[in-house]
Specification:
single chain; about 475 residues; mainly alpha; two-stranded antiparallel ribbon; 21 helices; 2 strands
Length: about 475
Amino acid sequence: MGAPPNCSPEQKTERMLKMTKARLDGLYWLLVGSVLFVLQSVAIIYTSPNAGQDFKPIYYSVRCLIQHGDPYKESDVLRVYRAEGGAPLATASARLLATVHIYPPTTFPITLPFAMLPWGPARMLWLTLTAGGLILASLLAWDLGANYAPALSGVLVGFLLANTVVLISLGNPSGIAISLCVVAVWCFLRERFIPAGILSLAFSLAVKPHDAGLFWLYFLLAGGVYRKRALQTLLATVVISLPVVVWVWRVTPHWMQELHSNMLELLAPGGIGYPGPVALGPMGLVNLQEVISIFRDDPRIYNPVSYLVCALPLLAWAFVTLRSRPSPKRVCLALAAIAPLSLLPVYHHLYDTKLLLLTVPACAMLWVEGGLLGWLALLVNTVGFVLTADWPAAYFFDFVSKLHLPSTGLFGQILTVVLRWPVPLILLVMGIFYLWVYARSCSVHASPRGRCRRAPFSAFLPLFREG
């Protein structure tokens, strides 16, 4: 932020010095978070033989595909796993975690190079790139917020990074997908390294479309150069993914049905994706089904209700995006709104909430503007970051699990939701808060004559026009 044009040279110099000091303070907090993150990551990678367990099904399914096996068939992947000396799998849950592939074929282009290496080096490289990507994404998210409040942005980002333990411990693809999504957002907003941004968002969409999809949709709906970037990203995604999808289709024509069966196995009662009391813990789910299932543990109820609750704010967000012209403030608010909302409709774990990095620029911007909105943004982000942080979440869940909460009656259900599953609630609050601020900032358009006018229904037409 520059100094006002009517400032004296001395005032401009003073403001620049203050801003420089604030940036150094922000970098200090970011550095502290990065050092803690690196120390924890090194300790996990070198001391835990189970580190990277979520990488196993990805790695061995690609190895199975290379050997002309079916990467979505548990027996085929298990055969490759045993032939290559994988650790014994004593339980059905261990076999599920190691051999059942639940990602679309579009993930194979990014995982195929790792499958060319033996398991040990491949695991080490995967975890190292995951850690490095998260540090880079944190730095870029801080840089976007540093335009407004560098010290506050450094504290938030540093705290989030220092509390990223489970993601490295598991080696889940979310780490790489989220990092690439943040890199793409930075490139598009800064208008720098555009080809790298397009490829980053393309790979992020290919690996985890339910993490990066709404961010791509924003750039498509926003129009102008952003729509051009979205279309270029779509083309890059097709070019990257199509050859491997064709390959998988030739090897196993029924891969879609098999993937669906794998997902059903994952979401079945007792599975790691089942919404309910079994998901309690620091690696629990954060999608809205967790909350609804407490009142009615029936997928025919909690799935439609969750989709409806999430659809309303997402439709409002899309309408606001179509009726407004992009500006730095509006882009930050739009991305801050969909970062938490994108986690709620479908299957997401606590480690997926690192996507909240993209709420930092909007929080910093509102804080600098001051007033009640600034304090509300700080409160919402602070509570959200604390509840989704790995270490506080682990201690909180351990404490709550020892409480004897009433298990029946409406009061007992509400108390269970508030104490045991507060993360989906705070994500919903964050999303609605930033959506409300975003809608307020876009309530009117400036006409060419300078007057304000409300956007007509024809604002939807740019969706079908060239960017």
